[in-house]
Amino acid sequence: MTLSKLSLRNAKRQAKDYLVYFVTVVMSAALIYAFNDLIFSKELLQLSVRMEYLPEMIVFASIIVVCIIGWLVYYTTGFMLTKRSRELGTYILIGLEPKQVTRLFMMENLLIGTAAFVLGTILGSFLFQILRAIVLTLFGSPYRFGLSFSLKAVGLTLTYFMLIYLFAQLKCRKRIRSMKIYDLIYYEKRNEEEFIHKSSRRRKTFVLSIIFGVIGTLFLMIGSAIPSFLGATCIIVFLYGFFISFSSGVPAYYESRPANKYKRQTLLVFRTLSAKLATMGIVMATISLLFTAILISLGLGMLFSRMFHFRAEQCCFDFFVSDTDTSVNFEAYTDYMHTNLTVTDERQYPVYLTEDGSLTNYLEANTRYTSFYDTDMIMKYSDYTALRAMLGYPEAEMESGQYLVHCMPYLENAVRQYSQSELYDTFVIYEKENLTLGNVYTETFNQYLWGGNGYNFILVLPDHIAEKYTIHGICYAAMTKEPISETQYYALRDIFYQTNTTHDGIFDADEYGTIDAKSQKKRAEASEVAMLAFPLYYLALILTMTTVTILTIHQLSEMNRYRQQFILLRKLGMAQRDMHKALRCQFTIYYAMPVIPALLVSVPFILNFENIVEPEILAGTNRPLVILLITLGLFAAIYMIYILLAYSSLIRNVLSTP
Fold first, then answer.
1. What percent of the chain shows pLDDT beyond 70?
2. 378, 417 in Cβ contact below 8 A?
3. pLDDT tens for residues 561-584?
4. What's the order of all strands across the beta sheet hosting 319-323?
5. Could you tell me if 613 and 307 are in contact, meaning their C-beta atoms sit under 8 angstroms apart?
């Protein structure tokens, strides 16, 4: 049999024996190709000028992905070398040259990589259509299915795979050529060496790691920045300390409690786990850290998606511009709007500021509101009713002697409590007129930015009273029949810059001025989701598949040893039901151990999201708890697929009746 035929036969056998690994590499190739296709898709890049940054973000994420997949291929290839070292040593014993054995092993893995690349590219073309449909939906563009095949994307994906496999193969080539026949034959007996050799030190490390884990968890529950950093550091120390000392820490625990050691299947389960962790403690700790990164990446992806969507929703007018220069002339805007668009309604109006900021101070003291002005902002009732009519909101009635408040929903209860307090039950106007609160409205009203209709809230006063105050700025709002295109928005923005540029060419717009368009906000949201949220999901998915694959490969590689072990236990009289329980218990603990520490870090981190973004973003169905549950659900769905595949394979091959 020639080397090429032998390589092909062995490659087929490896793909079957390490099916989980092969499928993961295929899926990774598909994802890499699909995201590479986004880079070269002119259709998607032309959706918005902001999408011009998408290729850089995808390439940056892909570099990280290549490192992750490279680690998977390198680790798995080395693992295969360990498990097949006796076979490779036998080839040399029967007359093959070491360089021929090296070439044989490299050809096998390159064949697996080539097959994974080809299948992944085909599958990736379908995945790209899913990504394409999502992006087009975000931009509100129609989607039509049509398979495409980008040679540039194929070339870039091939380049990534060549780098991944060449690095792994060169490392293995160097290892095989440097080993003697004796080393190859007995190399399977070796695995990761214990990091701490003395048992007494491992026991002390085990106890200290538990202490660090408890302290780190308590710090993370506090939630503020410095305790969170200290907590995360303690958890990292806990992870590596726990996993490298588990093999001696647990036996020490049961040595002092011999009665517990022999209960049910405890001895069998923990003896097997201790032996496994003694040889892969560092790997398990690293996997646990990667699980933490996965959960945080998924959580951040959903946080960014919600944040961008929220900001886009806050722009309710088709076009809006404001300026604190009270002499500003909006004629250039209105001329452009009426020339290039069908304006259905428009309004130019002033906003005012009070002498004091009683409501601002109250909200800042009793809510998460952070003031941008020292005083309260005011709008005339006539302007307010006109703007509500433009937006299609119900009419807001205000009786004599009353004032209204329009605010973001998270401030509504505080505003009502403010009006009911003895100190603020009336609103004093120039110490002559007292107004009581009539109603509070919370519809979207361009109050997210400082240059809109109040920063998170605005007071609505009768016209004759509001006009007594100093004008803070002038606003112009318009509704159009058709959405404002990106070209039209940038033309209007150019007017904004020209209006606020001095004769010396210096842009001199007041920091409180703003210009916005509803359609442009939606385009910005879609672009930001594609550039930030997509890469985070991409990384999380690749990391999940990679780490779970390494766990599963280790578990399935012990299948023959488990089978011999349970055959012996059956001969000794152990019931089939008890063997099932022992295997399930061992299996559950093995897969749960790297997840639990990751949860200790990521759960407090995600629940603390509410404190790192603006108020109201994470409210209702978008609360941090909901994000956490969705994050855990997505992670668990992928994790369980691998677990069920591994478990069914073990049950079928280990506990099947001989």
1. 77
2. no
3. 777 777 776 776 767 777 777 777
4. 427-429, 433-441, 402-407, 457-461, 377-380, 343-353, 470-480, 319-323, 514-517
5. yes
